[in-house]
Design goal:
Layout (H helix, E strand, L loop, with lengths): L5 E5 L4 H11 L6 E5 L5 E5 L7 E5 L6 H17 L4 E6 L18 H12 L3 E5 L14 E4 L2 H11 L4 E5 L5 H10 L3 E11 L2 E8 L6 E9 L3 H12 L6 E8 L5 H8 L3 E5 L13 E4 L2 H12 L10
Helix pairs in contact: 1-8, 2-3, 6-7
Length: about 325
């Protein structure tokens, strides 16, 4: 893909992924200066002429979600004030996605607030991967492309040639996606029924479906503290599943006790994408990281060329 009016930039949240995407597109990364003032304020300056250009900014949300988002808002503002033709925002892991409704009185809907802020900053389109819930698309008045890492997981599972697999949804909310994965790899479906007492605390009460003697593949959109995953493992093993349990999730947040819990759970393999940076200290035996750069690069290219990206959803 030759250099043209398309300009692709990336912020400080995940430069490794940004560089992979730029290389997949056959472009040079846009020149941008990002720094902090002594008081902690973020400073941004676009170091090349982008007047009339179609600009893309890649910025995922890490555990420094507030800094990542504020940096993103400021970059968008700088691009709009530099007379960019359009600003497409690629957020592989969309921050605050779990706060997508009022689960109790006097709570905010923070995902909607982030959507409003992105629009106010000047974003013309948002590209994200495996949003926590589909309804977040409705929070925007601009186009939203929701990509999925499912093709990566399907190809990877098929390469393993697992015997008698069963895809397990960690809760009823994930059952629809788990069913799609099960159908694509010719596997059965099971669902964990859990009760959540408070944030980051849940208990699996029973397993719906037959897992006895089967190779379990637990799938979810993210692994945060890994509480649900490890609770589910105990329940599945009590039902007599194959000792080799696989876990697949798009976003590997790995917060708090996650690494310790997953290590003790003795998973055969934990497979995530690089939608978030996973530093060496958070990597462990049995962890596999698949690159999402190809899917994201193809979405950027197709948007720029005004082509359909529907096939990337499958």
């Amino acid at each position: 893909m030759a250099n043209s009016e398309l300009r692709v930039f990336y912020g400080t949240s995940h430069p490794e992924l940004g560089e992979k995407i730029v290389k997949d597109l056959g472009l040079d990364a846009g020149k941008i200066k990002l720094s902090r003032f002594a008081g902690g304020e973020i400073y941004t300056r676009i170091l090349e002429n982008i007047r009339g250009s179609s600009c893309v900014i890649i910025q995922t949300c890490t555990q420094k979600v507030n800094e990542d988002l504020m940096e993103l808002f400021i970059i968008i503002d700088a691009m709009k004030r530099a007379s960019a033709k359009s600003v497409n925002v690629v957020i592989p892991h969309f921050g605050y996605a779990r706060q997508d409704r009022k689960a109790a009185s006097r709570e905010p809907i923070s995902a909607r607030l982030v959507a409003n802020l992105l629009e106010t900053a000047g974003a013309d389109r948002v590209v994200a991967m495996d949003l926590h819930s589909d309804q977040i698309q409705g929070f925007f008045n601009i186009p939203v492309d929701t990509l999925t890492a499912m093709p990566l997981f399907i190809n990877y599972i098929k390469s393993k040639n697992l015997a008698d697999p069963v895809v397990v949804a960690p809760d009823t909310g994930r059952a629809k996606v788990a069913k799609k994965l099960a159908d694509r790899i010719d596997a059965k479906l099971a669902i964990l029924h859990k009760v959540r007492s408070e944030h980051h605390k849940s208990e699996v009460t029973h397993v719906v479906g037959d897992v006895k003697g089967k190779t379990v593949i637990i799938t979810d959109d993210m692994i945060d503290t890994a509480g649900t995953m490890t609770n589910g493992v105990d329940a599945l093993r009590e039902q007599g599943c194959n000792p080799d349990i696989y876990v697949m999730a798009t976003h590997g947040i790995f917060a708090g006790p996650a690494i310790d819990r997953m290590t003790k759970a003795n998973f055969k393999e934990v497979v995530v994408t690089d939608s978030l940076p996973i530093p060496p200290e958070k990597q462990f035996k049995g962890l596999t990281i698949l690159s999402s750069a190809g899917i994201l690069a193809e979405a950027i290219k197709r948007n720029y060329e005004n082509k359909s990206i529907t096939s990337l959803f499958d």
